Amino acid sequence: MPDNEYLMEHEEETTRLMLKTDERTVMQQATWAGIKPGMRVADIGCGAGVTTSYLHKMAGSEGEAVGVDISKERLDYAKKHFGGPGIKFAQRNIADSIDDLGMFDFIWVRFFLEYFRLKSFDIVKNLSRILKPGGIICLIDLDYNCLNHFGLSDRLKKTISGIMNYLEEHADFDPYAGIKLYSFLYDLDYREIEVNLAPHHLIYGELNQIDEFNWVKKVEIAVKNSGYKFDEYEGDYEEFTKEFKSFFSDPRRFTYTPIISCRGIKPSGES
Ligand SMILES: C[S@@+](CC[C@H](N)C(=O)[O-])C[C@H]1O[C@@H](n2cnc3c(N)ncnc32)[C@H](O)[C@@H]1O
Question: Which residues contact 189 (CB under 8 A, 6 or more apart)?
């Protein structure tokens, strides 16, 4: 995979993000983190802009929300569907400085650091520069991403863990991003750090259509973009995805992923 290419890049990524984003969950997470009316909010890796629109609702008419993403296609969608007074979108590569966007009271970074295994701490450090002293950063990511399934055949289990190892090494993907978040804020001397742990993707019984679409796309796209070689399967990737889909649609399977949220307040003395 070329550098700077988003692992999940695919023509249906806007649809996937729209379908899997739940307003109540975003509101609960942002409220827990301490978002308040009147705040200037940055949504880092905003995708299709739907999270930015919920954060904007919470920042109210006196506040402002700025969605930042590298993808022109998703930002065009975001501008068309959610753009308006108090909400704007900016195309930026987070690997570069985004200091020109000004200072923020609240920075939201959800399902983003997992795509930057080696640089995640540097990204948080850079984002800290555009957070006002006393402002809040909220980092949210998964731990053991894609790795907690009960009921897998030995061959599927071996392949899934092989794929995740491969993505760590070759695509800079971090299946264990969540567990690191607390240490990032601790090392940056953040105050009033709080951590929350909850189940994400708690899936058992009949599969609903949203989980089916999200997971089949996750597996298909990430695996296809990764370049992993399917030695365990004679029919390569097609045979693997067929077996995965059959496992995943079986109501006996049990899947969950821990989601870790971490929020903290930037100390006043930091530059
Ligand atoms: C999984 S989505 C994020 C979803 C959203 N943050 C949420 O809370 O639901 C990750 C987003 O990060 C964006 N992205 C990936 N690499 C980036 C980079 N280097 N700079 C800015 N955005 C990037 C992708 O285009 C994608 O829209």
Answer: 267, 270
| Within-domain flag for 3 | no
Residue closest by Cα to atom 12 of ligand 1:
45
Domain that holds residue 110: 13-265
With a 6 Å cutoff on the Cβ, whether 49 touches ligand 1 is: no
Whether 6 maps to a domain, the answer reads: no
pLDDT digits (tens, 9 = 90+) for 223-263: 777 778 888 888 788 888 889 999 999 999 999 999 999 99
For a mutational test of ligand 1's pocket, the pick from 10, 18, 69, 173, i.e. the residue with the most ligand atoms closer than 8 A to its C-beta, is 69
**240 located within any domain:** yes
Q: Are 133 and 268 in contact (CB under 8 A)?
A: yes
Q: Which atom of ligand 1 lies nearest, measured to the CA of 93?
A: 20
For residue range 123-167, what is the model confidence (pLDDT) as tens digits?
A: 999 999 999 999 999 999 999 998 999 999 999 998 888 888 889
Using an 8 Å Cβ cutoff, are 139 and 268 in contact? no
Residue 2 domain-assigned (yes or no): no
